[in-house]
Amino acid sequence: MEDRTFIYRLILGISALFILALIDYKKNPANPTRIKEYAFLFSVAILVMAYGLLHDFITYSISKEYFIFAKGIDSAKSGFSLDVIKLALMATWTAGLIVGVTFLFANNPGSQKKQLKYGLLFKLLSIPLVFSVTFAAIFGIIYSANWQFFAKSGHFDDITLICSSPGNFMAVWGIHTGSYLGALLGLIVAVIIIIKLKH
Asked: Which pLDDT band holds residue 2 (cuts at 50, 70, 90)?
């Protein structure tokens, strides 16, 4: 089902952050920290959205039936449609903000701790990315090889009966599951490294 409120929530969120950044700039024009933080935050969100778009493009090529039956996107029958693109961008917009905010929170300077430069933070983003890709590949292979077991445990029996390639369908399900799990574990590892590097 399409989330028709997403664009309004997106505009409202961007507007609120812009106003806060403008206030911060007026208070401290020599070192507007909020503007730097928001620039990093949105940069991370855009990068994660780009990854999500590529991710779904690849998984669509593996099984468009996943998007048709599991996600309920009828337009996916005719190709990598705008609805599929919207789904990828909406999901990863939120994930990107979570990653960005977590990095900023972990990098928040304390009374006796230094703050890492943003260039280093961007390099550390590769950690959740590598974890995400690695877990996606592993889970995709496992789910594909054991698709009947995972279809039953995930209540996809009815769907896999109408799929032309149930193994590919479950592979994509596994890829998506592995992507999120890997990104979460990678984010935890990255946060630990950030905290250690600040000492």
From this structure: very low
